[in-house]
Write a structure and sequence with these properties.
Layout: E1 3-7, E2 15-19, E3 24-29, E4 32-41, E5 47-53, H1 56-69, E6 74-79, H2 83-91, E7 95-106, H3 109-112, E8 123-126, H4 133-150, E9 175-180, E10 183-191, E11 198-204, H5 213-227, E12 232-238, H6 242-249, E13 254-264
Keywords: Acyltransferase, Transferase
Pfam families: Acetyltransf_10
Protein name: GNAT family N-acetyltransferase
């Protein structure tokens, strides 16, 4: 594709917005790229777009071209603290769809109060990398179906969205699980990023809720990080998830920013 859209420039020269592929747009002024737009379809089918431009006028021109060429609904994600960018998206018709709170989570059990937390007597924690892949994938499917039937899996963080094959489990070594006799009933996923590990998901089967399993999984994960010398981890929680919010804030996690998912229908 090579569609072109002429627009007013940042000074006296015109900006030309060109659709260079099915998913990319370039804004060019005086033979210099002054902005880019990208589109990507997530595994759950939703189409997300992003725009990188120094000037608001260029942002708007790229947006006009993308909105003309792409089908609704369209989604984007912004740091809520970046009011200028958030306002730019709202100016072209995007509205908030959901918010995720970012939490900095301490790992020291003397801070979290999780040092004495144990799973129920009939449940054991299988450390990350030691779970059997078959039962782990079966649990992943059960939990995914339960979430989909309730709030919908699209409310989960982007990193645990289902892939084309329908699974959300790509690397079994990142999961510790709670085992009840010969069944896996809960899991926690920790991504070992160098700067700050990320707690990507904590989930327990619906028929095993309110037994303290999620809290025990979190205690295990944070304790392992603490013993390895990691002072804090990062987690993101949908603002509508009252149980997860209470779990993290109850162990001293502090909100450290928020992300907005915006939609234009």
């Amino acid at each position: 594709m090579n569609s072109m859209y002429s627009a007013s420039g940042t000074g006296h020269r015109a900006v030309v917005v060109t659709c260079v592929s099915d998913t990319q747009w370039h804004a060019v002024e005086d033979d210099r790229v002054v902005g880019r737009g990208d589109a990507s379809r997530r595994p759950d089918g939703r189409l997300f777009i992003s725009i990188d431009a120094w000037h608001g006028a260029v942002f708007d021109r790229i947006a006009d071209a993308m909105l003309e060429g792409l089908p609704a609904p369209l989604y984007t994600v912004v740091d809520e603290a970046d009011q200028e960018t958030t306002s730019a998206w709202e100016r072209i018709g995007f509205t908030p769809a959901r918010r995720e709170w970012g939490y900095r989570v301490p790992t020291d059990p003397q801070v979290t109060g999780l040092g004495s937390v144990q799973p129920p007597s009939d449940v054991t924690i299988v450390p990350a990398g030691e779970a059997d892949e078959g039962p782990l994938r079966a649990l992943d499917r059960i939990i995914r179906d339960e979430v989909e039937a309730a709030v919908g899996w699209r409310t989960m963080p982007a990193e645990v969205l289902p892939r084309p094959a329908g699974t959300t489990l790509l690397d079994p070594s990142k999961y510790a699980v709670a085992r009840h006799f010969d069944q896996y009933v809960g899991l926690v996923r920790v991504v070992p990023l160098i700067r700050q590990p990320r707690i990507g998901l904590i989930a327990v089967r619906g028929d095993r809720h309110r037994r303290g399993i999620a809290r025990a999984l979190l205690a295990h994960a944070l304790g392992s990080l603490h013993r390895s010398g990691t002072a804090s981890a990062w987690a993101e929680v949908n603002e509508s998830n009252a149980a997860a919010t209470a779990l993290f804030e109850g162990i001293g996690a502090r909100r450290s920013g928020s992300t907005l998912e915006l939609v234009r229908r």
